[in-house]
């Protein structure tokens, strides 16, 4: 990578959480940019996958896989438990009958694997980035099989793509990203990738710009068309995100504070974009809006979650002090 590219990309990469949060503002404020980017949504998702596998720490991955108990439990929860929990909540609320588009969006969110950025986010917050990466890899590897086996039951025919076809598309995207990402890693070498860390962060942000603008392009017009419905769905998106985060932290609390919070971050960051790309964008309007609104808690979480996790940590320490008194 030449210095004329490395320097601006590294400068962008150093902006970190601020740049990620700014993407949401750009996506909402520039609908024409979103219309230009939307045909490239699947390509942006694939590029994000390749960049993630390019930076995989293979040695750390193998070390965690030697302790499979927690990995197996976390993988089963994020790959099977989360979609089944979302289906149960949607059933209790009667969403399939009252709002099929919202039902579809929520089911795709539940079925999705963790976000590829979850390990980086966990590392930024002082959590176990390697544990996050291992669960991300194992849950993502299961995704085509889970989707092919469960989407017919969970979606109930509301998606215009056959479950097997959806699973095969996911498998092709993931398999191609793994081969290309790990192949580039072998070609370039871990040392060169480590040296270019900030530039790769900047490149990742540029690809995210394509992804976020493609998703957010219709948010402002939809908000203006029905502001009350928009506000309700946005509040629901934050509530689902918080429920996954706090529920997972509580479920794995016996594993220790850092593992539990790491897994909470992984489970709450759902890669809905991968599901939408595999479905070839065949979504009704409400599902597209839900998909867009779910990005708000995800991309604002680098700014919001550290303060929340510090508060949770402080509360846990205070409780321990009270028990010891």
Automatic annotation (TrEMBL):
Q: Which domain of life is it from?
A: Bacteria
Sequence intervals crossing the membrane: 40-58, 70-90, 131-155, 161-182, 203-222, 228-248, 260-282, 288-309
Q: Which residues form a coiled coil?
A: none
Q: Which UniProt keywords apply?
A: Membrane, Transmembrane, Transmembrane helix
Q: Which InterPro entries match?
A: Na+/solute_symporter_sf
Full protein name: BASS family bile acid:Na+ symporter
Q: Which organism is it from?
A: Roseomonas acroporae
């Amino acid at each position: 990578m030449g210095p004329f590219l490395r320097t601006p990309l590294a400068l962008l990469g150093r902006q970190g959480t601020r740049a990620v949060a700014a993407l949401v503002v750009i996506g909402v404020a520039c609908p024409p940019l979103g219309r230009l980017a939307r045909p490239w949504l699947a390509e942006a998702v694939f590029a994000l996958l390749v960049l993630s596998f390019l930076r995989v720490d293979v040695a750390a991955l193998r070390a965690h896989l030697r302790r499979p108990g927690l990995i197996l439990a976390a993988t089963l929860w994020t790959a099977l438990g989360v979609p089944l929990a979302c289906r149960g909540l949607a059933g209790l609320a009667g969403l399939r009958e009252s709002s099929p588009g919202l039902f579809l969006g929520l089911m795709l969110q539940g079925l999705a694997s963790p976000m590829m950025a979850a390990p980086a986010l966990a590392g930024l917050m002082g959590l176990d980035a390697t544990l996050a990466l291992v669960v991300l890899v194992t849950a993502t590897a299961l995704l085509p099989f889970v989707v092919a086996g469960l989407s017919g039951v969970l979606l109930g025919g509301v998606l215009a793509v056959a479950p097997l076809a959806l699973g095969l598309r996911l498998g092709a995207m993931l398999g191609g990203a793994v081969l290309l990402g790990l192949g580039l890693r072998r070609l370039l070498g871990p040392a060169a990738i480590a040296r270019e860390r900030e530039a790769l962060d900047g490149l990742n942000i540029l690809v995210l710009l394509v992804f976020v603008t493609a998703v957010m392009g219709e948010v402002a017009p939809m908000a203006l068309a029905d502001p009350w419905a928009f506000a309700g769905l946005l509040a629901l998106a934050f509530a689902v995100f918080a429920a996954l985060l706090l529920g997972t932290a509580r479920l794995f609390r016996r594993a220790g504070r850092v593992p539990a919070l790491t897994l909470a971050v992984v489970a709450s960051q759902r890669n809905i974009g991968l599901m939408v790309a595999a479905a070839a964008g065949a979504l009704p309007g409400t599902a597209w809006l839900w998909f867009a609104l779910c990005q708000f808690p995800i991309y604002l979480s680098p700014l919001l979650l550290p303060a929340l996790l510090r508060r949770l940590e402080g509360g846990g320490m205070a409780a321990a002090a009270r028990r010891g008194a």
